[in-house]
Amino acid sequence: MKRKLKKIKTFFKKRKKIFKPILYNLGGIGSIVGVWLIAIIISIGGLTNFGERALFEYIIAHQESKNKDYCETFGGTIGGIGAVSYAGYGGFKHYFHRIEIQFLDYYGEYKDLSNEEAKKAESFLPFYKGNPETQVQLAINFKNKSKSDFNHCTFTRLLLRAAHQNNEVAKKILSSYHLTMMASYLFIDDDKPFFLDRDFYLFRKYENKINSEKDLDNPALAYVYANNTETGKRNKYYVQAAEEGYLLAMEDYLLDHDGERFKKEDCGLILKYNNYLADQLSLIHFFNVLHANMGKITSIMVRPYYKCLNKITNFSKAYSMAVRIPDILSDGEDTNNSNRGKFWAAFMELNGLGTKQNYEKAFENFRNCSFDKNNEIIADKCALYYSYMNYKGLGSPINAAKGKSLLISYVEKKDKENLDFVTKNSDKNNIEFLEQNIKTIMSKWFENPELFKTLNYLGEPK
Question: Cα separation of 343 and 351, whole Å?
């Protein structure tokens, strides 16, 4: 037994000699890392800033593991909030990017920096934290970047470095983030780690600094303040920001004055902001104005504008906007796709609304838009009208065979119960079937019975 104990002691003594220097080295490395972390924490202003920086990097790593394009996509996927896809919007897409970064307009102008100047922003904590003014300038320079090369992770990292050096401009920019920028650093419910509060937003502390009117030295901050103040006071600050040209404030003011919360005394701003946003090619507001002037009031966002027009249509204005749609949608998109957006003009050309009745133009436009793969709902309306015009010989010689073929294709896709009916029907009965379907679909599209009954929706000769 004594011999066995002696062997055990000898075994551990030998291994102690082997592991002792290793343990010392590991302990030394651990101490160095600990000292390094303490130095970093002190250098960037304490545990709060260190935690913010660490969580920021965690969010990026976590999101990039799910989506490698996370840093190039505003809104990310946190909490299920996805960014708007720009594909298919043509010229309207420029507005989307503009509203996302407009807050940068109020913090300085673009300044071209040499590579040597830009390097001043680089940091190697804890010894060199980078120049905060250069970091802010590089962030401001992002206003000249397109959607495709705006990396919000790099942008935000620059601002955090400057903010942690107590740069006030950096803090204000972080407090001004647009909702889709916010969503990149927002955790909601199931998507959040267990150690974060519900609806956690990484930069809430900067947003919360905007807590009184004395802090509102630009419209981006007035907009933030509006969103965080009580409902009764909100519109005051939306108007304050909107009157200085802040697009988001105009949008949110109009959201607060939809069809259910309409007041006649607000008409001046309702008309002004809708018209301005339409001119800026905001997709939603362009069609708000177009549809209101046509009397199409399906959307609750259109109804206040229509009421402010005293329910009087202006088809000339509507037509002038409608004929622009194909060119706007073709901007930066597939120019070979000439079918898009032609329904609105075709409808008015057929009926002589806002323009001289022109069957040939209407026929061509309905033909084109009936093959619009980007908008099936509109394409179906075009297909019905295209079939009807072939049957009736409007804009082209009567071609009942083609009219019937087009109608059968439509019914096969949308109304199979009536397929046998239209296949065996006489041309006269099919024309009546088309007229009834056009009436039903278009009256629902307008959702304005009083107006619709006055419209020449079947293109009777004038």
Answer: 12
Write the single-letter amino acid at 46: G
Which residues have CB under 8 Å from 292's CB, separation 6+?
A: 274, 302, 305, 306, 309
**Bridge partners for 186 per DSSP:** 201
Decide: 74 and 180 in contact? Cβ < 8 Å. yes
Give the predicted TM-score (pTM) of the model.
0.84
pLDDT in tens, 406-438: 999 999 888 788 788 888 889 999 999 999 999
Residue ranges of the alpha helices (H) in 164-266? 168-175, 179-182, 204-207, 219-227, 231-242, 247-255
Q: Crossing angle, helix 247-255 and helix 219-227, to 10 degrees?
A: 30
Q: In Å, how far are 64, 270, 413 from 149, measured between CA atoms?
A: 17, 35, 42
Cis peptide before 449 (omega within 30 of 0): no
With 0-12 / 13-18 / 19 or more C-beta atoms within 10 angstroms meaning exposed / middle / buried, residue 152 is: buried
Which residue type, as a one-letter code, is found at position 322? A
Phi, psi of 353 (to 5 degrees): -105, 110
Max CA distance (Å), the chain? 121
Q: Are 286 and 278 in contact (CB under 8 A)?
A: yes
CB-based contact 339:368 (threshold 8 Å): yes
Residues 57-96 have pLDDT tens digits of 888 888 888 888 888 876 544 333 344 456 678 889 889 8
For the chain, the structural domain boundaries read: 47-84+91-203, 210-256, 342-452
Output the CA–CA distances (angstroms, integers) from residue 36 to 4, 125, 126, in the order listed. 47, 9, 8
**CA 423/CA 346 separation, integer angstroms:** 27
Helices and strands in the chain, H and E counts: 24, 2
Secondary element (H or E) of residue 444: helix 427-446
Q: Which amino acid is at 358?
A: N
Nearest to 357 by CA among 395, 386, 388, 322: 395
Q: Residue 441: CB partners within 8 Å, gap ≥ 6?
A: 380, 381, 384
Are the CB atoms for 322 and 313 separated by under 8 Å?
no
Please tell me the predicted confidence (pLDDT) of residue 3: 52
Closest to 164 in 3D by CA, of 47, 321, 249: 47
Is 40 strand, coil or helix? helix
